[in-house]
């Protein structure tokens, strides 16, 4: 389409992995003039997002999954490893990573990922066809208006690479807009009173958050709200710096991470779709029951027919084999019920579908086994977290109901009889507030 004054323009809002990968694709495959504007509101998140940005990820934060699965291109699954092993400039890497040869099944640090994405983006821009142009702009898209032949993106604090002064507010006309804005961080209502308290860490993947964690007393009792990947990152960080105080991982599900086997490789099995019956009006409970039966049967089938699949990975193989059938399954669930089901089972689905690298889980599970240095509890903050008047930065999670304590490394089944009226700590970290 384009416009008399300019070539066709695509504005991509958000320059995390999804936005950057989309820009790379457009630059590589466009055969006619197009301007690709990659807009990012937080300079430190460019080519990174919250998951990989350097300031929020120390070197021991590794990818949740294997280095061999971090390629940004489906058609070239070794691309990240190729970059990391052969192209990355390791001059500033710390000694523990500088000479590592990355392997398909092994770990890799998250904070190198922005360099990988930036390298691939720069290469794609360089190799692009004549008239295909990349513009990386800073700015916050605050509104979008769709017109019959174009879209107007309203941007605050727009700063273009041309060096022109930043504009408080500007309008970008586009032919297409790609929203790659990622996850929004939910404000934790239960912690509204302590968000600014020095003993409460709201954003563990930020420089101030990391500083606070690294500055915590090593004998402090720490309460981490959440028990999965981010909670493990926090616990791992504390343990690495010699933490001796008890670390409580508190979550509604009480689930724990399962480590991948050391030689784990990506593989998608071919399995038939789940048999959910023909009655599409039977309701969510009936659907869940059937799904559960089909799931158990599929897991048994994988265990029997694919003896090389490690028990810890059976559920991952089933979840991935079923992915093509998901749209048809989801169509049978009204959106309001779907939201409620996801709220209830989201963590379970995540842990069934993905494991974590032993690099992340080993130190945490070892501490769980060592006489309760890490305690996993099932509970939820039903009332507000508040600070105590002691002036020492103590805070108490009033009415954080924990109906089970579990210090083992296997996921617990709930509920159990034990009841703890509240959980208190000298330091709190909220990690489970992404949706
Ligand atoms: C802590 C953490 C660790 C993770 N680790 C892994 C891992 O090891 N492996 C893995 O595969 N996945 C991991 N994930 C999942 C991860 O979210 C995805 O892999 C991926 O990074 C998501 O990319 P995205 O581009 O969709 O979103 P994001 O990375 O969140 O990027 C969205 C970007 O859009 C920008 N933005 C938002 N709104 C606007 C606006 N209005 N205007 C301009 N810009 C805007 C944001 O600032 C942000 O930079 C992790 C997630 C988290 C939170």
Describe this structure in words.
The structure is a single chain. The chain has 435 residues and is of the alpha/beta class. It has three domains: 8-179, FAD/NAD(P)-binding domain (3-Layer(bba) Sandwich); 189-258 and 357-430, FAD/NAD(P)-binding domain (3-Layer(bba) Sandwich), CATH 3.50.50; 284-353, no CATH class. It is built from twelve helices and 15 strands. The chain has helices at residues 17-29, 49-52, 79-87, 95-98, 113-127, 207-214, 229-240, 284-305, 314-322, 326-331, 335-353, 358-369, and strands at 8-13, 34-40, 132-146, 151-159, 167-174, 176-179, 200-201, 222-225, 247-251, 374-381, 385-387, 395-397, 400-406, 423-425, 427-430. The strands form three sheets. Strands 5-4-3-2-1-6 form a six-stranded mixed β-sheet. Strands 7-15-8-9-10-13 form a six-stranded mixed β-sheet. The chain has a three-stranded antiparallel β-sheet with strand order 11-12-14, with no helix packed on it. Mean pLDDT is 85; it is low at 397-424. It binds flavin-adenine dinucleotide. The site of flavin-adenine dinucleotide has 28 residues, from helix 1, strand 2, helix 2 and strand 3.
Provide the descriptors you would attach to this structure in a database record.
435 residues; alpha/beta; FAD/NAD(P)-binding domain; 3 domains; six-stranded mixed beta sheet; 12 helices; 15 strands; 31% helix; globular; binds flavin-adenine dinucleotide
Q: What is the number of beta strands?
A: 15
Shape: globular
Q: List low-pLDDT spans.
A: 397-424
Order of helices and strands: EHEHHHHEEEEEHEHEHHHHHEEEEEE
Cα radius of gyration in angstroms = 24 Å
Number of helices: 12
Alpha carbon gap, first and last residue:
36 Å
User: In CATH's first tier, which class of the largest domain applies?
Assistant: Alpha Beta
Mean pLDDT: 85
Specify the helix fraction band.
25-40%
- Class of secondary structure makeup: alpha/beta
Ligand names: flavin-adenine dinucleotide
So, CATH architecture of the largest domain? 3-Layer(bba) Sandwich
**Sheet of most strands:** 6 strands, mixed
Number of domains: 3
Walk across the major sheet and give the strand order.
5-4-3-2-1-6
CATH fold-type name of the largest domain? FAD/NAD(P)-binding domain
- How much of the residues is beta strand, in percent? 15-25%
């Amino acid at each position: 389409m384009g416009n008399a004054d300019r070539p066709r323009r695509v504005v991509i809002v958000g320059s995390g992995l999804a936005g950057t990968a989309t820009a790379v694709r457009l630059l590589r495959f466009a055969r006619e003039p197009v301007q690709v504007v990659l807009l990012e509101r937080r300079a430190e998140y460019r080519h990174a997002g919250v998951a990989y940005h350097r300031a929020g990820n120390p070197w021991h934060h590794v990818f949740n999954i294997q280095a061999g699965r971090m390629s940004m291109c489906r058609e070239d699954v070794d691309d990240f490893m190729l970059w990391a092993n052969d192209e990355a400039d390791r001059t500033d890497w710390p000694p523990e990573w500088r000479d590592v040869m990355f392997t398909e099944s092994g770990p890799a640090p998250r904070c190198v990922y922005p360099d990988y994405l930036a390298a691939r983006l720069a290469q794609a821009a360089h190799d692009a066809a004549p008239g295909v142009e990349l513009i990386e702009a800073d700015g916050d898209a605050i509104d979008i208006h769709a017109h019959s032949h174009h879209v107007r993106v309203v941007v605050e604090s727009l700063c273009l690479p041309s060096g022109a002064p930043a504009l408080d507010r500007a309008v970008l006309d586009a032919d297409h807009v790609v929203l790659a804005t990622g996850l929004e961080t939910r404000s934790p209502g239960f912690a509204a009173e302590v968000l600014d308290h020095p003993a409460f860490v709201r954003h563990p993947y930020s420089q101030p958050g990391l500083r606070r964690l690294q500055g915590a007393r090593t004998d402090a009792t720490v309460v981490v709200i959440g028990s999965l990947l981010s909670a493990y990152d926090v616990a791992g960080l504390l343990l690495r710096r010699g933490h001796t105080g008890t670390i409580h991982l508190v979550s509604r599900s009480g689930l724990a991470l399962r480590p991948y086997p050391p030689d784990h490789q990506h593989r998608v099995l071919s399995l038939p779709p789940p048999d959910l019956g023909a009655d599409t009006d039977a309701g969510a409970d009936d659907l869940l029951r059937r799904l559960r039966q089909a799931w158990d049967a599929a897991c048994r089938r994988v265990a029997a027919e694919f003896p090389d699949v490690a028990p810890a990975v059976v559920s991952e193989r089933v979840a991935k084999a079923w992915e093509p059938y998901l749209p048809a399954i989801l169509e049978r669930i009204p959106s309001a019920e779907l939201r409620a089901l996801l709220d209830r089972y989201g963590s379970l689905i995540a842990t069934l579908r993905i494991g974590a690298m032993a690099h992340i889980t080993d130190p945490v599970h070892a501490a769980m086994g060592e006489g309760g240095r890490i305690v996993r509890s099932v509970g939820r903050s039903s009332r507000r977290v508040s600070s105590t008047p002691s002036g020492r930065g103590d805070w108490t999670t009033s009415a954080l109901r924990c109906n089970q304590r579990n210090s083992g490394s296997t996921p617990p089944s709930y509920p159990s009889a034990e009841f703890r009226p509240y959980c208190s700590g000298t330091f709190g970290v909220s990690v489970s507030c992404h949706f």
